[in-house]
Write a structure and sequence with these properties.
The mean pLDDT is about 95. Helix content is about 50%, strand content about 15%. The protein folds into 2 domains: about 220 residues, 3-Layer(aba) Sandwich (Rossmann fold); about 180 residues, Glycogen Phosphorylase B (Rossmann fold, 3-Layer(aba) Sandwich). By secondary structure, the chain is of the alpha/beta class.
């Protein structure tokens, strides 16, 4: 695809953007805020030179946390700017970093908007988390001599096939990154096949994310509300269509299930599902006293408590993997020492899933019947749960160190930009 055609298609779509924001705002009112930023108009200012980090949503923001915290400590002469695409990503940034950083929405990838962004903030360095390829933004940074590093980069086989269809547009864009630091050898190989000239394997930052210090204590408190004698199963980060399958898998099993939908705008939808099936449940936000034995499901309708849910559980299922969503992050559950069940669709976390299964920390399930069988097995075998939990901790600890490698790279590029100015 020629770059000019790519830009033309974006301009043709631009008039429909307000309608999209309004539609999303019906379920999530935060989409109705800060519209000007999405078109490149900013009031936020900084007196310090800026290190810019782009984190699309919640997962990328949490993954970047170790990096952000070290940058705040080691480079106080810089101002950190985090950009996001979703309100939940922005809210997570506020929760994790407060007013220690600046945060705005990344503009849509049309030339007038991305040029305004680059000219307004004048970042000394751009750190793009995972795989966000916006070709007009990449071009604007290149023209204004802003080095761009694609960090924690991953590229599934499915995504790579899609990018291949764009031809030289992708090749030219990737060539403008100073470096692409891939999560795995497979990711690096796919980037190279697309024409990326500057690549390396640095590992997965998400292994370096640590649970909040209070997670264990809060988990114990939550477990007391659940009932200390009950087996507790967490279905974490579930996606649309998966909750009915999970309810089928747990039907009439002797356990308490906590279902935590990936997206907060789906809390009410999942509640309606529970009502339609006449399943006794309670929302986490309404849980103030110890549960009665008749409650079968807790709907996790809170933000920022996933580590607490894991701490309060005996084992976990990682959502986005029963259906073709590519899987969600199993690393958080591993870091809390929990046995992990995960479906067969894990291309978003292929390397981590492979390692977790090989280490004995995780078991993959084929379908709903297989999931039910594995849940029953873990209910009946506490010793197996303990063994898998220890393996999960070992797997998590053995995979850390990516942040240190990233900081070394960042230091080199900051030094070169300081020298050039």
């Amino acid at each position: 695809m020629p770059h000019a055609l790519y830009t033309l298609l974006l301009y043709l779509a631009l008039p429909f953007v307000p309608l999209k924001l309004l539609w999303r705002g019906i379920k999530q009112p935060e989409y109705l805020q800060h519209w000007a930023e999405r078109f490149g108009f900013y009031s936020t200012q900084s007196r310090k030179p800026i290190i810019w980090i782009h984190c699309v949503s919640v997962g990328e923001t949490r993954a970047a946390a170790p990096l952000v915290n070290i940058l705040l400590t080691q480079y106080p002469q810089y101002q950190l700017l985090l950009t996001h695409t979703t309100p939940t990503g922005r809210a997570t940034s506020e929760q994790l970093f407060g007013d220690h950083i600046l945060r705005v929405y990344l503009p849509y990838d049309v030339p007038f908007a991305v040029n305004r962004f680059v000219k307004h903030f004048k970042p000394k360095l751009g750190l793009i988390m995972e795989t966000e390829l916006w070709f007009n933004l990449i071009d604007a940074c290149d023209r204004h001599q802003v080095p761009q590093l694609l960090l924690n980069a991953r590229l599934s086989e499915k995504s790579a096939k899609g990018y291949v269809q764009l031809g030289r547009l992708v090749q030219n864009g990737l060539s403008k990154f100073a470096l692409i630091a891939a999560q795995s050898n497979e990711d690096e190989a796919r980037f190279k096949l697309l024409g990326a000239p500057h690549t390396m394997v640095a590992g997965n930052l998400k292994f370096d994310v640590t649970a909040p210090a209070e997670s264990e204590v809060l988990g114990q408190q939550l477990r007391a509300l659940f009932g200390n004698t009950r087996t507790v199963f967490v279905a974490a980060s579930t996606r649309e269509g998966e909750e009915p399958l999970i309810l089928d898998a747990i039907a009439n099993l002797p356990l308490l299930t906590v279902i935590v939908p990936r997206h907060p705008q789906r809390f009410d939808e999942v509640e309606q599902l529970l009502k339609s099936r006449h399943i006794p449940y309670i929302r986490r936000s309404q849980l103030t006293t110890t549960l009665t034995e008749d409650i079968q499901v807790v709907l996790g309708d809170s933000m920022g408590e996933l580590y607490t849910y894991y701490a309060a559980s005996d084992f976990a299922f990682i959502g986005g993997s029963l259906l073709k969503y590519g899987g969600q992050n199993l690393i958080e559950a591993a870091s809390m020492g929990k046995p992990i069940l995960i479906g067969k669709y894990t291309y978003n976390f292929a390397e981590a899933t492979k390692g977790a299964v090989q280490s004995g920390a995780a078991t993959q399930v084929r379908d709903v019947d297989n999931l039910r069988a594995k849940i029953q097995f873990l209910i009946d075998n506490p010793s197996k749960r303990e063994k898998m939990g220890l393996a999960a901790l070992d797997f998590s600890k053995a995979s850390t160190g990516t942040t240190v490698r990233m900081m070394h790279l960042i230091g080199q590029y900051l030094q070169s930009t300081d020298t050039s100015t």
